[in-house]
């Protein structure tokens, strides 16, 4: 049973100056960098491999293994790109992390760049979150002034320049190959892989691209490797992560806990589902991960157990919906998002998301039929595994899982001539029960 929080990344978020260099140093920050610089770069990679941390951006690829794919001794520049585009519905951990503790991300970026032999690193952050862009840029200025960035860092001979790049705001630009294309100055469209970024990434050079939380975890791995290696969890899902609870929950927010914690335990910490209501469905890792229900309260939130339950751990964005929520309406809203964010490059996703919205609108209005459900599932089959990138696959998750668990509710709309739910009751200020 994992019933305790394990604040590492979030430990000092409530301190008023946690985002400053002085505040970060006071709480032990910037102490892992000298330790890393005293190691051989390959030993840093081995330490991250041994910690067995899997990427925190959704797909869960082991970070140390990814770093080791970069060719060594080649004559090309290497790059580190931090993916700070966070835009998956429900995902809300990287932005608070960067606001509260930008220096841990920068320290992680310097250590990672040293390990992969990069002398240029980028943090690609979505431009709409101007407050985050400003905070990161200020922290980067502080880091340069303190000698943690720039030439001959801490007298080690290692040089690194770090650029904060503001994207124009598109969900597809979080997909790693589209992000690299966007960073190069082109329209953010995904690229065919292979070649993978480790071989041909930014400017066709070897590139590591990692999520904010993955890179921000590096200082604690180097600083206290034993903590990570002894972390609870399974062989394939080790360590700690930020779990974001949102929606119909008494105290929404970020809860840093070992992988394997359950929703029941997290809900206890968050004061439960909002008063007077009960859990109906939830996403374990953002809207691209199939929904689960109250049958899944005790599923350990690690990569394998969530997969065995028919979903994905994703970004640990737990969106909680109580019994006032119309599942058809929720699925329609998500699908509208995917339609809007589809980049249009491939037919299954471009056309499919458009048609799925039309069919769902019909169903929500009470004008849909049972055949419409089959049509929806058929369109899903034509997108899943056939789209050019994982945005298309993500778009079908809410629909397939929504129909799997709540088929009757989709049909009730037709029987009752419209939506049987009061939309006001599901709002957070709604009082109707
Ligand atoms: C449509 C789409 C959007 C994505 N958005 C993000 C994002 O905002 N942040 C992120 O870290 N990864 C995002 N990803 C996953 C990235 O492609 C990539 O797997 C990740 O940045 C790798 O980092 P990690 O190994 O540290 O998890 C997205 C993927 C897709 C398909
Ligand atoms: S799946 Fe969607 S987002 Fe991805 S390339 Fe195709 S149209 Fe673009």
| Major sheet attributes | 5 strands, mixed
Radius of gyration: 22 Å
* Dominant shape: globular
List low-pLDDT spans: none
What ligands can be seen in this structure? flavin mononucleotide, iron/sulfur cluster
The helix/strand order is: HHHHEHHEHEHEHHHEEHEEHEHHHHH
- Total helical elements: 18
Average predicted local confidence, pLDDT: 95
- In helices, the fraction of residues equals 40-55%
Widest beta sheet: strand line-up: 6-5-9-7-8
The chain-level structural class is alpha/beta
Task: Characterise this structure.
This protein is α/β, with parallel strands linked by helices and 433 residues long. The protein has helices spanning 21-26, 32-37, 41-51, 63-68, 94-100, 102-116, 130-145, 176-183, 212-216, 218-223, 225-229, 263-269, 303-308, 327-341, 347-364, 370-383, 390-415, 423-426; strands at 79-84, 120-126, 161-167, 207-211, 240-247, 253-258, 279-283, 292-293, 317-322. The strands form 2 sheets. The protein has a 5-stranded mixed beta sheet, covered by helices on one side. The protein is globular and about 75 Å long. The relative contact order is 0.12. The mean pLDDT is 95. Iron/sulfur cluster is lined by residues 172, 190, 342-346, 349-350, 387-389, 391-392. Flavin mononucleotide (FMN) is lined by residues 55-59, 61, 63, 83, 85-88, 171-172, 174-176, 209-211, 214, 389-391.
Features:
about 425 residues; alpha/beta; binds flavin mononucleotide; binds iron/sulfur cluster
């Amino acid at each position: 049973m994992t019933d305790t929080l394990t604040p590492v990344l979030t430990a000092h978020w409530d301190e008023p100056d946690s985002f400053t260099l002085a505040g970060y140093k006071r709480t032990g920050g910037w102490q892992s960098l000298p330790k890393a610089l005293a190691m051989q770069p390959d030993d840093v990679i081995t330490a991250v491999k041994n910690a067995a941390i899997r990427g925190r951006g959704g797909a869960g690829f082991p970070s140390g293994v990814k770093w080791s794919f970069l060719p060594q001794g080649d004559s090309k520049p290497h790059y580190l790109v931090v993916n700070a585009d966070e835009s998956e519905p429900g995902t809300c951990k990287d932005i608070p992390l960067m606001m509260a503790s930008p220096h841990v991300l920068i320290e992680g970026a310097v250590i990672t760049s040293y390990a992969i032999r990069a002398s240029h690193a980028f943090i690609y952050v979505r431009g709409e979150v101007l407050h985050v862009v400003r905070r990161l840029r200020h922290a980067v200025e502080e880091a340069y002034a303190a000698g943690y960035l720039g030439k001959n860092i801490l007298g080690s001979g290692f040089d690194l320049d770090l650029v904060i790049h503001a994207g124009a705001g598109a969900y597809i630009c979080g997909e790693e190959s589209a992000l690299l294309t966007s960073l190069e100055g082109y329209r953010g469209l995904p690229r065919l892989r292979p070649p993978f970024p480790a071989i041909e990434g930014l400017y066709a050079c070897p590139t590591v691209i990692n999520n904010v939380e993955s890179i921000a975890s590096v200082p604690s791995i180097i600083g206290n490797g034993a903590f990570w290696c002894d972390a609870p969890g399974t062989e394939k899902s080790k360590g700690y992560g930020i779990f974001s609870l949102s929606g119909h929950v008494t105290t929404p927010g970020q809860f840093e806990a070992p992988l394997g914690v359950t929703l029941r335990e997290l809900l206890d910490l968050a004061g439960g589902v909002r008063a007077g209501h009960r859990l109906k469905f939830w996403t374990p890792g953002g809207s691209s991960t199939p929904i689960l229900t109250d049958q899944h309260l005790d599923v350990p939130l690690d990569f394998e157990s969530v997969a065995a339950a028919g979903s994905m751990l994703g970004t640990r964005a737990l969106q909680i919906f109580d019994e006032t929520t119309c599942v058809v309406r929720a699925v329609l809203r998500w699908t509208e998002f995917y339609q809007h964010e589809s980049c249009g490059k491939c037919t299954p996703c471009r056309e499919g998301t458009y048609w799925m919205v039309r069919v769902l609108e019909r169903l929500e209005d009470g004008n849909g039929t049972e055949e419409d459900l089959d049509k929806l599932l058929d369109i899903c089959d034509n997108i899943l595994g056939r789209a050019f990138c994982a945005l298309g696959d993500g778009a079908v998750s809410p629909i397939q899982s929504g129909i799997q668990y709540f088929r009757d509710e989709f049909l009730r709309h037709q029987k009752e001539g419209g939506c049987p739910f009061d939309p006001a009751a599901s709002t957070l200020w709604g009082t109707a029960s």
